[in-house]
UniProtKB/TrEMBL annotation:
<dbReference type="InterPro" id="IPR032675">
    <property type="entry name" value="LRR_dom_sf"/>
</dbReference>
<dbReference type="InterPro" id="IPR050905">
    <property type="entry name" value="Plant_NBS-LRR"/>
</dbReference>
<feature type="domain" description="Disease resistance protein At4g27190-like leucine-rich repeats">
    <location>
        <begin position="42"/>
        <end position="141"/>
    </location>
</feature>
<protein>
    <submittedName>
        <fullName>TIR-NBS-LRR class disease resistance protein</fullName>
    </submittedName>
</protein>
<dbReference type="Pfam" id="PF23247">
    <property type="entry name" value="LRR_RPS2"/>
</dbReference>
<dbReference type="InterPro" id="IPR057135">
    <property type="entry name" value="At4g27190-like_LRR"/>
</dbReference>
Amino acid sequence: MDSIFKANEIFQGDELQIIWAFDIQKMTRILDQLGSSPYFVSSEFGALKHVHLEKCPRLESIFPGHVELSSLETLSVLNCGNLRSIFYYHEVQDENQFPRLHTMQLHELPNLLHLCEKQSVPLQMKEWKKLHFRGCWNLQWLPLLVEARSEKVEVDGEMRQCEKLRARMPDDQISCYYFKSPPPLASFREHVKNKIFLKY
């Protein structure tokens, strides 16, 4: 199975609330709408609240940028080594596209380049509170956010990667994010030390 939903099939999932996919070896994306296939209507996933994808080694991207995810609250993507983009193909046009998204968890995604492939409009994302990532060494940038937020987004990741993301961030975006200092073990790959303990 290379995708879960096909654009050229009748889709009646406007009440779908959860997508949970585990160990789907051949899936490359959630929605198949490349080539000559017609696009999904943007509101067809308006009820979707939770997305969890794990151990899908060929997954390249998840949602096209125009799909309306007005109810999405949590997004977890774990151990999908080929993933390059969360929202792809289309530029995000609506600044209030993700009004309820509050938590993102991204683990062991070594090829992930960006959360939004193209972005010309800063996003509101007023409920977004946490971004937790590990092993996303190629992540290039974080989404642009509308300033004057009541609460900063807490970014929890390896120290070296957080420093890189912060350095690439426009000055007007630094106040939107809070880079949390990770526990020492979170960056163990950066400072591996071999120790031998002898007990007598």
